[in-house]
Amino acid sequence: MKQFLFAALTIVVAMSSAWASLGDSSDTIEDLYGNLLQRQLRDDGTVSGLYHKGQYFYLVVFANDESISESYSHTNRTDLSEKEIAKFLKLNAAGGKWIDISTSKERRFKRSDDRAEATYGSLTGRRALTVRELGRHSDQ
Predict the structure, then answer these.
(1) Which terminal residue of the chain, N or C, has fewer Cβ atoms less than 10 Å from its own Cβ?
(2) Strands (E) located in the chain
(3) Vertex 116: Cα angle to 28 and 57 (nearest 5)
């Protein structure tokens, strides 16, 4: 029984660390997202990094070496499924819940602690979910 619990716990830990989330360091992001395609110093002093892993592009904005914004999109430009959107929101829930505040024109979500928001729409010519912290250098 102990072996089963240990194996189950190991799987849960491995699965939870398969993707990064807001607040993670650039080292953690690079370890998890792998292939850095582009890094850019932005006008506001933040740094953006574009990563490619599997079927996704990840555009991450860092301030003080912490992720403050992450955008998720398919490499083939198709829409994210509802399941994928839910997965990425859950990864960035930080113990809170996401509340759908969409309008007829735009898909929007806010986190129950009011410390993050998410939008699903066009980003650099492709449909992406963008999750960003509020109250820091999170203007993207």
Answers:
(1) N
(2) 35-41, 47-53, 56-63, 66-74, 98-100, 107-111, 116-123, 126-133
(3) 45
